From TrEMBL:
Residues 1-22 form the signal peptide. It catalyses: Endohydrolysis of (1->4)-beta-D-glucosidic linkages in cellulose, lichenin and cereal beta-D-glucans. Residues 54-148 form the Glycosyl hydrolases family 45 active site domain. This is cellulase. Belongs to the glycosyl hydrolase 45 (cellulase K) family. The keyword Ribosomal protein does not apply. Its EC number is 3.2.1.4. GO terms for molecular function: cellulase activity. It comes from the Eukaryota. Keywords: Carbohydrate metabolism, Cellulose degradation, Glycosidase, Hydrolase, Polysaccharide degradation, Signal. SUPFAM superfamilies: Barwin-like endoglucanases.
Length: 153
């Protein structure tokens, strides 16, 4: 459960950047290195990213994550997909997503989670509109502060 004002890191479309693919649990130091590297690439002064508005999802639909398709990301391998049980890993990255009638689903290990070392920090895979194309955000790590607005659920 995310608390009001709690930092929430979303990794858009790829769980492999932080190593949260079920084999690794991100440590705060590796997470900070990823964030620092992202900031260096995105910020003119290398110190911070500029705050901007936008949309992000906050749901869990169990569909195969976008990064599980070959050629979608620039990492060592596609993210894993799992059978309907959420545990059994599928070896064929071309297996169609369950959301399209296939048998590939997100793995239980790809669900949003709260850091064990810092309960005020959460991690999740997110989705966003593809305005500038996937290459503009795919595999990026974002620090998001959700606003507590009246009427927001």
């Amino acid at each position: 459960m995310r608390l009001p004002g709690q930092p929430f890191f979303m990794l858009f479309a790829s769980v492999l950047l932080l190593g949260a693919d079920g084999l690794h649990v991100p440590s705060s130091s590796s997470t900070q290195r990823q964030i620092d590297e992202y900031n260096r690439r995105q910020s003119p002064d290398g110190q911070h990213c500029e705050a901007t508005g936008g949309q992000a999802t906050q749901y869990w639909d169990c569909c195969k994550v976008g990064a599980a398709w070959p050629g979608k990301n620039v990492v060592v391998r596609p993210a894993h997909s799992c059978a309907k049980d959420g545990v059994t890993r599928l070896e064929n990255p071309m297996t169609t997503s369950g959301s399209e009638g296939g048998s590939a689903f997100a793995c239980n290990s790809q669900q949003p989670f709260v850091s064990s070392s810092n309960p005020m920090l959460s991690y999740a895979v997110g989705a966003r509109p593809i305005v500038l194309g996937e290459d503009s955000f795919f595999g990026a790590c974002y620090s998001i502060q959700f606003q507590e607005l009246p009427g927001k659920t």
